[in-house]
Amino acid sequence: MSGGSYYVPESSKWPILGSVAVGVMMIGTGMLLVHDRGTPMVIIGMLGVLGVMALWFYDVIKESRQGLYDAQMDRSFRWGMGWFIFSEVMFFAAFFGALFYVRTFALPWLDGEGAKGVAALLWPDFTASWPLMSPPDSSISGPAATFSPWQLPLVNTLILVASSITLTVAHEGLKEGERHVTRNWLFATLLLAITFIIIQGVEYYEAYNHYGITLQAGIYGATFFLLTGFHGVHVIIGATILAVMFWRIQKGHFSGDQHFGFEAASWYWHFVDVVWIGLFLFVYVF
């Protein structure tokens, strides 16, 4: 190829070890769901996955610092990150789709409306509404109350929007070679991320102890925790990635024109922010 040779990484043990770790975690999860045991396997598998990821990324960072990567590898990383984020978009699209299906089709059918309104024969006294405070099956208790979107959810929305702004400033500082700007604004982004996680924890405590919103609180409780819970996990992952970027900035890594690791972290964080705006609108507001 013109401009240099294509770098072929050495044989790596991390793919097979990662597969084994994921397999152990999934077997443990299956045992936990079916037989109510398997927690040690889940924990061992999860620690294995985290360990493989950390060591694998360490190798990638080391190879990059040694100058082994060229323009073709840079394109490969960009395509890889792009497809990864696309898979995450599809992941959340499935849960948003489930919420849309329940609210637009399933609940009206149970209330006698639409093409499958005959389903109303199952629970003739049921009246469709959202949030669903009174599930059709009387054996299931719905939530006692729902969150006002204009309190903690709005605060968290403003925090995440602000974190995207601070991260953008940090990115621009890196491109301009102003490392102190990058360091300071990236640190501010991390503080905002940690604040979001803490507020989400407070909200979950309130949900379980004062609002009756649990995973057993009908379809509203299930969709609430699936959507906000998976997003919370992504925030924690994103904050961890940003912490690694902060450490690398402190170590003098990256340059104005060679910093895809930082750029990929920014892509991921902005994606997490956009997903939250969707959650705020369709889980809390509408």
UniProtKB/TrEMBL annotation:
Residue intervals of the Heme-copper oxidase subunit III family profile domain: 2-286
Annotated GO CC locations: plasma membrane
Pfam families xref list: COX3
Keywords: Membrane, Translocase, Transmembrane, Transmembrane helix
Transmembrane parts of this sequence: 14-34, 41-61, 81-102, 185-205, 217-247, 267-285
Gene3D superfamilies, A to Z: 1.10.287.70, Cytochrome c oxidase, subunit III, four-helix bundle (1.20.120.80)
Known EC number: 7.1.1.9
Compartments, record wording: Cell membrane; Membrane
Membrane topology qualifier: Multi-pass membrane protein
UniProt superkingdom: Bacteria
Alphabetized GO MF terms: cytochrome-c oxidase activity
SUPFAM superfamilies the UniProt entry points to: Cytochrome c oxidase subunit III-like
InterPro entries tied to this protein: Cyt_c/ubiquinol_Oxase_su3, Cyt_c_oxase_su3_dom, Cyt_c_oxidase-like_su3, Cyt_c_oxidase_su3-like_sf, Cyt_c_oxidase_su3_a-hlx
GO biological process assignments: aerobic electron transport chain
Family named by the database record: Belongs to the cytochrome c oxidase subunit 3 family.
Name of this protein: cytochrome-c oxidase
Top-level taxonomy: Bacteria, Pseudomonadati, Pseudomonadota, Gammaproteobacteria, Oceanospirillales
